[in-house]
Write a structure and sequence with these properties.
The chain is mainly α and 114 residues long. It is built from 7 helices and no strands. It has helices spanning 3-7, 19-36, 45-49, 52-63, 68-72, 76-97, 101-113.
């Protein structure tokens, strides 16, 4: 089955999948594993920010910027790294918005020293 066939949805043919479901099917295991490996529900930084479903929607939205044919040829190892990077970046962005002006200046200084 080529990517054109996958992209087309045809309710009479059960083999065809909506494009977003292809992304969901491939990304969900990486997202769920990253969350599961990051602590219990009470102290998990990922679950403090979003629910599992919101993380899945966020990562799918980000990855849909890649054309489906390019997305499908990404190795599992590379996809795992990309998902982890996107999730970590989203957590850091959330932390930075909570900092005071003085804390942001200190953070900026630390980045410049490195």
């Amino acid at each position: 089955m080529n990517t054109d066939q996958i992209e087309q949805t045809n309710p009479t043919n059960p083999i065809m999948f909506p494009k977003q479901e292809v992304y969901r099917y491939r990304l969900t295991p990486f997202i769920e594993k990253r969350i599961a490996d990051s602590g219990t529900d009470e102290n998990n930084p990922y679950l403090q920010k979003y629910s599992n479903e919101k993380w899945i929607k966020y990562i799918i939205q980000e990855m849909e910027q890649l054309p489906l044919n390019q997305f499908l040829i990404i190795s599992d190892e590379d996809l795992k790294k990309r998902v982890g990077g996107l999730m970590s970046l989203e957590l850091v962005a959330g932390i930075l918005t909570d900092l005071t002006t003085e804390q942001l200046k200190a953070f900026d200084e630390c980045l410049r020293r490195q």
